[in-house]
UniProtKB/TrEMBL annotation:
Top-level lineage group: Bacteria
Family according to the record: Belongs to the small heat shock protein (HSP20) family.
Gene3D superfamilies assigned to the protein according to its UniProt record, in alphabetical order: 2.60.40.790
InterPro entries per the UniProt record, alphabetical: A-crystallin/Hsp20_dom (IPR002068), CS_dom (IPR007052), HSP20-like_chaperone (IPR008978), Small_HSP (IPR031107)
CDD domains, sorted: ACD_sHsps-like
PANTHER family: HEAT-SHOCK PROTEIN 20 FAMILY MEMBER
Name used for this protein in its record: Hsp20/alpha crystallin family protein
Any Pfam family matching the protein: HSP20
SUPFAM superfamilies per UniProt: HSP20-like chaperones (SSF49764)
Domain CS: 43-148
SHSP domain location: 39-153
Length: 154
C-alpha cells in the first residue's frame, strides 16, 4: 500500500525515508515470485466495473489472455459468479526464457446483485480481453422501484 504523495517528499523526513526503504524491501522480495499477480489481485482476481442503467446492470471484467471457452458466468438467486482459468502457453522443452512475470491459474469473483434480474435475459460475451455481462432487471424489480420526492425544508 502506497502512502499519499505528500509523505516523504522532504529528504530529511525520517518516516518518508523509512517508508521508501520498507517498500523497496518488499518490491525486491516479491520480484522473484512467479505468481505475484495472485497476491496483488492484478489478474487472478479480475478487476470489474458495474454500471446501472434504467434497464439493469452492466458488468465488465478484465480477462486478458483468456479464451471465451475458459470463462464461466453463473447466476444463483442474486449471486453472480465469474470464474475461469488463464492457461500457461509454455511448451515442454522450451528454452531461452529469462524472465516471466505473467500470471497463470484459476480465478473467481462473486458478488451479490442489489436486486433481482431476469435470469433468462442475461447475456455475456468476451471481446478483446473484456468480459461484458448484461443483467436486465426482472419485471418484479421494475415494479418495486419507486422514485421518492424530496421536500425542501422550511
Amino acid at each position: 500500500m502506497r502512502l499519499p504523495a505528500l509523505w516523504g517528499r522532504d529528504k530529511d523526513d525520517p518516516f518518508g525515508a523509512l517508508h521508501r526503504e520498507v517498500e523497496k524491501v518488499f518490491d525486491d522480495f516479491t520480484k522473484t515470485w512467479p505468481s505475484v499477480g495472485a497476491l496483488t489481485g492484478r489478474f487472478l482476481m479480475p478487476n470489474i466495473d458495474v454500471h446501472e442503467t434504467d434497464k439493469g446492470l452492466e458488468v465488465t471484467a478484465e480477462v486478458p489472455g483468456v479464451d471465451e471457452k475458459d470463462v464461466e458466468v453463473t447466476l444463483v438467486d442474486n449471486l453472480l459468479t465469474i470464474r475461469g482459468e488463464k492457461k500457461s502457453e509454455r511448451k515442454e522443452g522450451e528454452e531461452g526464457r529469462m524472465v516471466s512475470e505473467r500470471s497463470y491459474g484459476a480465478f473467481q469473483r462473486s458478488f451479490t446483485l442489489p436486486y433481482e434480474v431476469d435470469p433468462n435475459k442475461v447475456e455475456a460475451r468476451v471481446e478483446k480481453g473484456v468480459l461484458k455481462i448484461s443483467l436486465p432487471k426482472s419485471a418484479e424489480s421494475k415494479k418495486k422501484t419507486r422514485k421518492i420526492a424530496i421536500k425542501t425544508a422550511k
